[in-house]
Amino acid sequence: MAGINNVGQSGLSYIDQLKSLQENKKQSEVTGKQDLKQEDFLSLLTKQLAQQDPFKPVSNEQMIAQMASFATVDGIGKMNNQFESLNSSMTSNQALQASSLVGRDVLVPGAAGVKAAEGGMPAMVKLPQSVDNLMVRIENEMGQLISSFDVGPQLAGDTRVEWDGKDENGNALPAGKYKVKASGLLEGESTEFPVSTYANVNSVLLGKGDGNVLLNLAGFESPVRLAEVLEVGKA
């Protein structure tokens, strides 16, 4: 006979056996078996107490430590389940709130924007510091320059610019995707600045169990995460 921390020939402690059973159950999840529960713990504990050496019984400290170990593992498991439930609930709430964005314009990072059939296309340029002369270039999807204009001196921060939707000769261009690029002189060197563009929200969908809410934007092939939205236009 052996104590809980010295189980005869097996050489396995109670906690070792508990971990071993837990691992075996996890490996056989395909059979429909669940993880160890409190009943399994009590069953193992009872067997260990029945087999312990009466001349070397387990001490109160060891008993409390083993019970505390199980309680900690069990508590962590329950906490993980609660977090998963909370995450699912928060994702659903986000999707419900994001549904109000359908039909509205949102500002997202990236130089590629979508021009409607009528009018031009706005964009936002982020300047790390003031510039004396901000230049904006408009390119088509092939990267060909179709228009450019001078915005003039601008202060540091977000600067809204708007292309009128026409080429260099004043001809209105068709609807489609265009790129907005901005540059200026910083400390005597020509520098490209980050640009964000506006797009209309077509629909809202949930991510693949990762807690993300995605927006399908008009003219965009891939959805954009709600967390990436920088600004929401007026309804």
What is shown here, in short?
This protein is an alpha+beta fold and 235 residues long. The chain contains 3 helices and 12 strands, in the order αααββββββββββββ.
- Can you give the helix content as a percent range? 25-40%
Which CATH architecture of the largest domain? Sandwich
CATH class of the largest domain: Mainly Beta
Task: Count up the helices.
Answer: 3
The total beta strand count reads 12
Tell me the fraction of residues in β-strands, as a range. 25-35%
Question: What is the structural class?
Answer: alpha+beta
Please report the distance between the alpha carbons of the first and last residues: 77 Å
Rg from alpha-carbon coordinates: 32 Å
Tell me about the biggest sheet?
7 strands, antiparallel
Poorly predicted residue ranges: 1-12
Order of helices and strands: HHHEEEEEEEEEEEE
The structural domain count equals 2
The CATH topology name of the largest domain reads Immunoglobulin-like
What does the average pLDDT come to?
75
The dominant shape is elongated
Keywords: Bacterial flagellum biogenesis, Cell projection, Cilium, Flagellum
InterPro entries: FlgD (IPR005648), FlgD/Vpr_Ig-like (IPR025965), FLgD_Tudor (IPR025963)
Protein name: Basal-body rod modification protein FlgD
Pfam families: FlgD, FlgD_ig, FLgD_tudor
Topology diagram in text:
Elements lengths: L13 H14 L10 H14 L8 H39 L6 E5 L2 E4 L5 E7 L3 E9 L5 E10 L2 E7 L12 E11 L2 E5 L1 E12 L6 E5 L6 E2 L5 E2 L3
Antiparallel strand pairs: 1-9, 1-12, 2-7, 3-6, 3-9, 4-5, 4-7, 7-8, 9-10, 10-11
Family: Belongs to the FlgD family.
GO biological process, one term: bacterial-type flagellum organization
Keywords: Bacterial flagellum biogenesis, Cell projection, Cilium, Flagellum
